[in-house]
Specification:
about 325 residues; alpha+beta; 6 helices; 26 strands; about 20% helix; elongated
Length: about 325
């Protein structure tokens, strides 16, 4: 496990920017949550925030002294930006992250953090290089300075208040650790726990009541009672649809007819296509599909891109040759296949 320094900028004696948001109040919330999440992942996280420096220079010197007291993988400085007051125009000014040089080893994490915060809806201003920022110049470890959003832009403030400081902190920590889900937040962990299981977390706890299909950095997985079930092969659902699962993982290459406890389903690109009605195949034959599901009660003729087929019990009868006494649906004089 790694070690990290984290701090919020400024303090109440030498405050930062304030308008629709108060920088000092918010950077403390975000930085403390970042520390909590890093620790929940098993890492060491030092709080290097300074609340005693009576001048700007002393505040910065105190922060850097605390940072340099530890040997860490990364220093992360949390700030909120300011420009001219904007009462709202429907566009956020957005997020940006600073590093000391384009070759800084902090740059990759900075880019991930910037992209993650932008994914919450903020304009992505990108990673920028600055050799003038004191914290970036004076810290011994690689460092990045995060400007979360603009305190004096109403659109930024409204979006920040909507998503909340915890979502910002999660975006930062996911970027630092290069993970898509955290043990201290919601979602499927990227790696196995000590007992070998991949767990789904809710509010930092294993969610034993969750059964779903969820994503981590390794793919999409079938989660049963809070952990990935690598033994499961079938069709499972989440809020986005029903998915073909093979050995616990979504098979996006599947184009077939597959089974779960609710029936047999037409799969296209790994997902049940509830909009499909026609004839589709799997290893066992060709089947009548209606609204994505095999209709085993169907007796008649049906069509797909390869022709018109004679079907009994929901299955194309390839061994049959002759005449068929079947009923067809007619609308406006046209046979409905």
């Amino acid at each position: 496990m790694a070690s990290y320094n984290v701090h919020g900028g400024h303090n109440r004696i030498v405050p930062g920017a304030s308008s629709y948001l108060d920088e000092v109040a918010e950077d403390r919330l975000v930085s403390e949550e970042v520390i909590r999440l890093l620790q929940a992942e098993g890492h060491t996280a030092y709080n290097c925030t300074d609340d005693s420096g009576a001048t700007q220079s002393k505040n910065l010197a105190n922060i850097v002294a605390r940072c340099n007291a530890h040997s860490v993988s990364l220093d992360t400085s949390i700030h909120f930006n300011a420009a001219s007051k904007d009462t709202g125009n429907g566009k956020t000014k957005g997020v940006e992250v600073y590093v000391y040089s384009s070759s800084s080893s902090a740059k990759a994490a900075a880019q991930r953090v910037c992209d993650n915060i932008a994914a919450l809806g903020f304009t992505n201003r990108g990673v920028k290089v600055s050799t003038s920022l004191y914290v970036l110049r004076k810290t011994k470890s690689p460092a990045m300075l995060v400007e979360v959003c603009f305190v004096d832009d109403k659109d930024d403030a409204d979006l920040y208040n909507k998503v909340g400081y915890k979502a910002i902190a999660q975006a930062i920590v996911k970027g630092i650790l290069n993970k898509s889900a955290l043990s201290g937040s919601d979602g499927l962990a990227d790696s196995a726990a000590a007992d070998g299981n991949w767990y789904y977390y809710k509010n930092g706890q294993i969610a034993h009541n969750i059964t779903t299909v969820a994503k981590n950095k390794n793919g999409w997985w079938y989660v049963k009672n809070g952990k990935v079930d690598f033994t499961y092969t079938g069709v499972a659902q989440n809020e986005n649809g029903w998915w073909r699962i093979v050995n616990g993982k979504v098979d996006f290459n599947c184009n077939s007819v597959e089974q779960n406890e609710n029936g047999w389903w037409y799969i296209r690109g790994g997902k049940v296509d509830f909009g499909y009605t026609g004839v589709a195949k799997n290893a066992n034959g060709w089947w009548r599909i209606e609204n994505g599901k095999v209709n085993f009660d169907f007796n008649g003729i049906a069509q797909n891109e390869n022709g018109i087929w004679y079907i009994q019990g929901g299955k194309v009868q390839f061994n049959y040759s002759g005449t068929a006494d079947v009923k067809v649906k007619v609308s406006g004089g046209k046979v409905q296949m």
